[in-house]
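Give me the fold.
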Amino acid sequence: MPTSKKAAPAVVLPVLDGEDPWTAEEVEEQRAELQEELERVERRIAATEAELESLLKGGTDGAGRDPADVGSSNFERDQEVSLAANVKEMAEQLHLAISRFDDGGYGLCEVCGQPIGKGRLQVFPRATLCVTCKQREERR
């Protein structure tokens, strides 16, 4: 007797009232976009860390160096540290979004549990808050 393969259940993402439901193709594209962005960000982290390592190997002592050069090097190093932190935070957001996608929580606001909105997620795929909750957070 031939065995039939069951297709994996389709992921259903929540939408706001008045929005068109996600199509299977859009869901697949959204998941792929999250994964591709994560891969880009991880490459960027590696490049930023390599640049930071290069700057740190340059040393921070000012012995025999022009004070303006030391200040410039320190500023550049601080900028790279800040950039590295921002990129790592973006990677964490992407990991969280992918995890929520895989466990069925993607598209729901982490604070109020309501849909984030298809339009918002298409523009900002790693969003974890609906517009209302995000505005509340930013006012604090």
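DSSP finds four helices and no strands in the chain.
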